[in-house]
Amino acid sequence: MPTKNDGIMVILSSPSGAGKTTLVNLLSTQDNFEISISHTTRQPRPNETYNKDYYFVNDDEFKRLINNEEFLEYAKVFDNYYGTTRTPVIDKLNKGQNVLFDIDWQGADQIKNKKLDYKLITFFILPPSKEILFERLSNRDMKDKLIVEERMKQFERDVLHWINYDYVVINDNLDDCYSKIKKLINAETTNGSKDYDLNFIRKHVEKLTI
Ligand code: ADP
Ligand code: 5GP
Predict the structure, then answer these.
(1) DSSP assignment, residue 161?
(2) Which atom of ligand 2 has the smallest separation from the CA of 53?
(3) How far is C-alpha 170 from the geometric centre of its chain's CA atoms?
(4) Residue 139 to residue 123: CA distance in whole angstroms
(5) What domains can be seen in the chain, in order of their start residue?
(6) Pocket flag, ligand 1, residue 21 (CB < 6 Å)
(7) Distance between CA atoms of residues 203 and 109, nearest Å
(8) What is the pTM of this model?
(9) Closest CA relative to residue 37, chosen from 120, 101, 91
(10) Which contiguous run of DSSP H or E holds residue 96?
(11) What residues are paired with 101 via a beta bridge?
(12) How far, in Å, from the CA of 37 to the mean position of ligand 1?
């Protein structure tokens, strides 16, 4: 039975390349914040570590986890399956640890709809501009122009989901963005005042989508 001493759940989603993985890693350096490690059927990237970045599994194992109802949420993203198993998350929350999720909008919707008794704060991260997003994707996925093109196309669709999140934050300067998210989490957990301008975000989304 969840209590006041339980941890909170913090979800970060974004169009690919906007910086959510970087931000989740930064947030996890705070005391008592742990990243939820997802399962995926995608192949590991050269810089990724098994059981740290992801639990890399094949399709059969992923299906077995679905059939055993072990997932809190799962979704197909860019031709691969990704999912969060329930037990590690609930165990952490019950121990008072805060859990960070780097998941897409489909997973965020599923967790929201579960209406668990734990506090949930959802963030959608946006790039300062499409040009900068293109630069970041090109730097990260340097060898694969096709991936960059595909993810830029997907941006137009992904960005539309901003409206379903508690907060939308623009990742221009990394330190500023990190600090903004930390302050909003703090304000949410202490009922403090929030420095958040929805109109500014609405205008930024308009600029990104014209
Ligand atoms: P996502 O997880 O949203 O796909 P990443 O966290 O992998 O995005 O970030 C994409 C790339 O942009 C990475 O190479 C990362 O180092 C870089 N990056 C992230 N945030 C910033 C920032 N504020 N300024 C410059 N580069 C950034
Ligand atoms: P990547 O392959 O770049 O690591 O991740 C691709 C997308 O899958 C990102 O939007 C990431 O947030 C999302 N993702 C990663 N893990 C999960 C998960 O467990 N569930 C869901 N729904 N999405 C995930």
Answers:
(1) G
(2) 4
(3) 14
(4) 24
(5) 9-208 (3.40.50.300)
(6) yes
(7) 24
(8) 0.96
(9) 101
(10) none
(11) 11
(12) 19
Give the residue, by CA position, lying nearest to ligand 2 atom 16. 103
> Encoding tokens for residue 199?
């109109």
Candidate of 136, 152, 171 to mutate for ligand 1, largest count of ligand atoms within 8 Å of Cβ = 136
pLDDT digits (tens, 9 = 90+) for 43-90: 998 889 999 999 999 999 999 999 999 999 999 998 899 999 999 999
Whether 140 has a pLDDT exceeding 90, the answer reads no
Q: Is 81 exposed, middle or buried (0-12, 13-18, 19+ CB in 10 A)?
A: buried
Spatial separation of the C-alpha atoms in residues 78 and 210, rounded to whole Å: 24
171 neighbors 18 (Cβ within 8 angstroms): yes
- The pocket around ligand 2, CB under 6 angstroms, is made up of 16, 38, 42, 73, 75, 77, 82-84, 102-104, 106-107
Measure the CA angle with vertex 192, ends 172 and 168; round to 5°.
Answer: 30
